[in-house]
Structures are given as C-alpha cells and as structure tokens.
Specification:
Blueprint lengths: L1 H29 L9 E8 L8 E7 L4 E8 L2 E15 L2 E8 L10 E6 L5 E5 L1 E8 L3 E8 L3 E2 L2 E2 L3 E5 L1
C-alpha cells in the first residue's frame, strides 16, 4: 500500500510540475512584444494604383524602438519620405500596427496607415484618406483627398502589400 501511495504521489507531483511548466510557458509567450513580428525592412510587392509606367514602389522599415519610416519612389526618384511612431493592436490573434507620421512643420496633416500581417507573412497596408482645402483668396477654393501613400495616374493608392527583404 505504501508503494502505491508513493507511486501515486510521485505521479501527481510530476503532473503538477508539467502543468505549471506549460501554464508558465504560455504566460511568458503572451508577454512577448507583438511588434517583434513586424520588425524589419519591407519592399512593396503590389500597389493598387500606378502611373502609366508602373513605377511606384515603397519601402517600409519598422524599428524595435517603436518608430517606422516609409519611402515612396517613382522609378529611381524619391518622391515621398516620412517617419513616425507606431502602436500595436491585437484582436483574435490578428496583429496590426497603427503608424502615424510625425507632425510636419509646414502642414497640419499627419499621414497615418494601418499595417496588418497576413497568414503568409505579407504585410497589408491600408492608409487613411484625408481631405485638404486649398484656396487663393478671391480666385478659387478646392478640396481634394489624399492618402499616406499618395496617388497614381489612375487614383488614390488605397492598398499596398509588402514582402520582407
């Protein structure tokens, strides 16, 4: 009877240790930074609006320090470059970053966009669309829409897919 009790006690203690290890391992995994999945440099593999020469491309760099940079090129010419901070968001296991550019001195427009990671590791970026008003006193007033990625010949760029370098 003592051997059975001792065997059961040892088996129960081993089971308890195994459960504690699994549970604690799960807790530590949850505390890993969500952003680390996004850290790196990415090049655009798809842009949903292009110029006649299909020459618009983007480079997105996500840094460990909570910052990002985005560069747009038309062919070899750098057309747009901005940087800023990002915040992470996770819902139902899907991870997203909200990237907001730093305030520009000569404009109150701060472009921003959301980056989601697709199942295959591709990043999908969707920009916010903002409107601006331009006017010359007494001559004209116009309102136009713009996005963080700008536009191509055929319209606003509303979706960019990125592949990790």
């Amino acid at each position: 009877m003592k051997n059975t009790f001792r065997t059961n006690t040892i088996a129960l203690a081993m089971l308890f240790c195994l459960l504690c290890t699994c549970l604690l391992g799960g807790c530590f995994k949850e505390t890993d930074s969500v952003e680390t999945d996004f850290i790196g440099t990415y090049r655009s593999s798809f842009v949903d609006a292009q110029n006649e020469t299909d020459d618009i491309s983007f480079t997105l760099t996500v840094n460990e320090d909570g910052t990002f940079s985005l560069t747009r090129k038309n062919g070899e010419t750098k057309w747009l470059e901005f940087s800023g901070d990002y915040k992470s968001y996770t819902k139902n296991g899907k991870k997203e970053l909200l990237c907001v550019a730093q305030e520009d001195d000569d404009s109150t427009w701060n472009p921003y966009f959301v980056v989601s990671m697709l199942d295959d590791g591709t990043l999908m970026a969707v920009p916010a669309t903002n409107s601006k008003k331009d006017s010359l006193p007494g001559i004209y007033e116009t309102t136009y829409a713009t996005t963080a990625f700008g536009k191509g010949s055929n319209g606003l760029i509303t979706l960019v897919l990125f592949e990790k370098e």
